[in-house]
Amino acid sequence: MSRKLFKFKGGVHPPEHKAESNVRPLHAAPLPGKLVIPLRQHIGNPAKPVVEVGERVLKGQMIGAADGYISAAVHASSSGIVTAIGPAAVPHISGLPDLCITLSTDGRDEWIAHAPLDYQAMAAADLRMKLRDMGIAGLGGAVFPSAVKLDPGAAHSCPTLIINGGECEPWITCDDMLMRSRAGDILQGVAVMRHLLGSTEILVGIEDNKPEAIAAMQAAAQSLDFAVDVVAVPATYPAGGAKQLIETLTGRQVPSGKLSTDIGIQVFNVGTAYALARAVHHGEPLISRLVTVTGHVLRPQNFEVLIGTPMHTLITLAGERDGSTGALMGGPMMGMPMPDLEVPVVKATNCILVKSNALFPPLPKALPCIRCTRCADVCPAALQPQELFRFAKTGDFGRAQEYHLFDCIECGCCSYVCPSHIPLVDFYRYAKSEIWAREKEKRAADLARERHEFREFRLVREKKEKAEKLAAKAQAARAQAALDQAKPAGLAAAAAPELAAAPSDADAKKALIAAALARAQAKKAGVVPKNTDHLPPGTQREIEEIEARRAKIRELARQPLESEEKKP
Amino acid sequence: MITAILVMVVLAVAVGLVLGWSAVRFKVEGNPLAEKIDAILPQTQCGQCGFPGCRPYAEAIAKGEADINQCPPGGEEGIKKLAELLGVEPKPLDEAHGAPKPKSVAFIDEQLCIGCTLCIQACPVDAISGAAKQMHTIIAAECTGCELCVAPCPVDCIAMVPIAEDLPHWKWKYPVIELKRVA
Ligand code: SF4
Ligand code: SF4
Ligand code: SF4
Ligand code: SF4
């Protein structure tokens, strides 16, 4: 284990507070009477409900199907009756409700029929679809559907697979407990990942403040038929960030705006590997996870929790104390305050951190930025947080993007060290969501413009087509009239009105040709009476001359119309 | 002296020729300023600015025939952007053209719709689907909320429904931080 390690830029050393929760054994949380399962628990399209209110569902039954490629299914965490499908409170900082399926559990915890997958015999694409339908998503916090990440794409393989057991965020110990107690299963999941990605180098990065976890993983790695390098990395926040772990282990940096797969590296959390092993070797979809309940509680510890369990039941299990000031989902650096403690545990819930004024005193009032650049010194993404703050504050989002706002991983190191106590990350989150919203608005406006322009074009076209049809009709009629006039007069005078009404719409083109022909003839006819002195009776000649003049006048009147029609 | 004058004259003629030639050679189709203005306008196509759509308003601004504060859907921010583009001072929205409203989409009460197609004819972005004597419906994703379909409906079955904030549309708010007073 003498791997050469690299140091990523920046980082901080906040007090770890791991010992509070990792000394008590892991317990399964009891089955709650009610489970609220949100359909949007992952990045991408929310799942679509496939059950109805009143239906009895079994443990592990799919209740929401994946919708599209970047999506994942959700499942009933226990058996019971579907009591509601509708908006309910979800663990989101906004406090806005989202579509959830509520189950009233029957206490029997009855499994649906399930069987292990013979993953080596399955086609890779089928296996990935299966994993999507089993609801596997990244459990490190980002909850990106794992099936998508397990697709090496055009490259056909991803040479380096990194398993992230960093868990650098203070207070959280669920990955630590998982590695201590279920190292073998985690590595089974890694085997499946390796199979799908075709990786040749497998690294497990664990912060060196978790010696038990490192020992357990190393022991489990001995019994594998492929090499896994379990590496202790120096404990620095945020060493467990994907890009930071990649740099620590391989010395390579993911370029700005690129994905780690672009440099042939894929990273998965240990929890995800465990969920994958349960799915493949036991046929169990993702319906539970480990959650650390810590902070201002009597017995901080880790529970194995069914997805959909209300957070408050867990806090009660861990021993609620007076004087709590709300809870965070996640750790103190990146966690989100929960609007309400009845919200359910979801796939992204790694920790419930109960706050109190003693543990988390309210931040002192902010002072103006003194441009000390301490934030820049600790930023692991090599950004200039003080500049980003300035641009976000004044709404200069273009400049913020030029300063790589979107490389910010929202780790909170900058806010942590800022002597002016400015909540810097809140500004970056605000700026990012404002930029996204504007892009969305811009796209909507572009669509509206396009549709409006097409409508205008369509109206003009319809008008023109109508006019053309009418003109063709009129012209055909005129041509007919002219033709008739060119004929011996008596007959023509009688026949013209009837003929004029004859041509139909469908003959428009034919009529145009006929009209051109008629014009030529009419011209000829118009000239004849003047030049050739026939010898009919005098009155007859007079009539002919008048007719010819009329035809000529008509011809003249027609000309601008025709040229107009020919233009397009 | 004469040489100097000659040089200047020749220079002037040469530069004039080049400029004249490039004006012809690199002629830009359309009106690039109107194009830029149009890109800022919200494309609601509601006509509140007094023009039949955003593009005509953009052209009028480009020609200096209309002021920059006539578009209520664009709001303060739109005016600010226009002012920035045109290098003028931003001014408050002209109340005569209406006040900004929360973003809405039209909704047809399908029980009442008689299928007269009048709303289809009014919609500037073809966001209504239906046919004569058939029930009509709004394609919400394409509706700009211009309200032009509301008035023509003979049975008043079209209502404007404000878009409720939900999770996918939620935005982080501007952080409100208490600043400590520095004496
Ligand atoms: S640490 Fe705070 S005060 Fe110092 S430069 Fe950064 S934002 Fe400004
Ligand atoms: S939150 Fe963003 S800007 Fe601040 S230190 Fe972390 S990556 Fe850098
Ligand atoms: S008022 Fe309506 S039509 Fe005029 S520019 Fe604004 S959105 Fe477009
Ligand atoms: S549906 Fe009505 S409100 Fe929506 S864009 Fe069309 S006309 Fe305007």
What's the shape of chain A? elongated
Largest sheet of chain A: 6 strands, mixed
Residues in β-strands, percent of chain B? 5-15%
Largest interface: A-B, 34 and 30 residues
Instruction: Return the CATH class of the domain at 32-97 in chain B.
Output: Mainly Alpha
CATH topology of the domain at 32-97 in chain B: 3-methyladenine DNA Glycosylase II, Chain A, domain 3
Strand content of chain A: 15-25%
Number of strands of chain A: 17
CATH superfamily of the domain at 118-284 in chain A: NADH-ubiquinone oxidoreductase 51kDa subunit
Q: If classified by CATH, what would the architecture of the domain at 32-97 in chain B be?
A: Orthogonal Bundle
Structural class of chain A: alpha/beta
Count of alpha/pi helices of chain B: 5
Span between termini of chain A? 79 Å
Helix content of chain B: 25-40%
Low-confidence stretches of chain B: none
CATH topology of the domain at 118-284 in chain A: Rossmann fold
- What is the CATH superfamily classification of the domain at 32-97 in chain B? Electron transport complex subunit B, putative Fe-S cluster
Tell me what you see in this structure.
The complex is a heterodimer of chains A (568) and B (183). Chain A is built from 15 helices and 17 strands. Chain A is an alpha/beta fold and 568 residues long. Chain A has a domain of 167 residues: 3-Layer(aba) Sandwich (Rossmann fold), CATH 3.40.50. In chain A, the strands form 4 sheets. Chain A has a 6-stranded mixed sheet with strand order 1-14-13-17-15-16, sandwiched between helices. Chain A has a 4-stranded antiparallel sheet with strand order 2-8-7-4, with no helix packed on it. In chain A, strands 11-10-9-12 form a 4-stranded parallel sheet, with helices on both faces. In chain A, strand 5 and strand 6 form a beta hairpin. In chain A, helix 3 crosses helix 6, helix 9 crosses helix 12 and helix 14 runs antiparallel to helix 15. The longest helix of chain A is centred in the last third of the chain and has 63 residues. Chain B has 183 residues and is mostly helical. Among the domains of chain B are: 66 residues, Electron transport complex subunit B, putative Fe-S cluster (3-methyladenine DNA Glycosylase II, Chain A, domain 3, Orthogonal Bundle), CATH 1.10.15; 61 residues, Alpha-Beta Plaits (2-Layer Sandwich). Chain B has 5 helices and 4 strands. In chain B, strands 1-4 form a two-stranded antiparallel sheet. Chain B has a two-stranded antiparallel sheet with strand order 2-3. In chain B, helix 2 crosses helix 3. The longest helix of chain B is centred in the first third of the chain and has 24 residues. The model of chain B has no long low-confidence stretch (mean pLDDT 88). The chains are: A alpha/beta (568), B mainly alpha (183). Chains A and B meet through helix 12 of A and loops of B. Bound molecules: iron/sulfur cluster (SF4) (4 copies). The site of one iron/sulfur cluster has 16 residues of chain A, from helix 8 and helix 9.
